[in-house]
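Forgive a beginner's question, but would it be possible to get any protein sequence you like and the tokens describing how it folds?
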Amino acid sequence: MPGLPPAKSRKGLWIVVGIVAGVLLLVIVGVLLLVNLVGGSTRQAGDLADDFTRLVIAGDTDKAYNDYMDPSLKEQLSREDFASGVKSLQLDPSCTTAYDDLKVSTQNDNNIADVAGLIKCQGKDIEMVYRFAGKDELKLVTIKLRPKV
């Protein structure tokens, strides 16, 4: 038909749109993976702190000592000293935990989780600071439990 221009090819436009969509998809997947990894590590650290603190509040210091403490901490803190220290805090079933800070990081191929907060009991608060570290399994390497002044 005379007078009609030939149809324009939009092949270049579709290539550009495909490339942009591919890049956006890769960015979204990357962000989701990063959030999931950081969130998973943070959740694991919170769960460890919760489980350990529940044992301490319940007075099950042997299980807390055996299952959660790193051998390096056991060298510095005997089972008896740990048990007597926990007993001196006079914790009871009314006590609950409230975390102020939970940080997860990696240093020299070791995963590190720093947890800080309070054990709130009737009439008193106990300051708690934990550091868990390890490559495959996190163990308690630092602990501080003392009445808040």
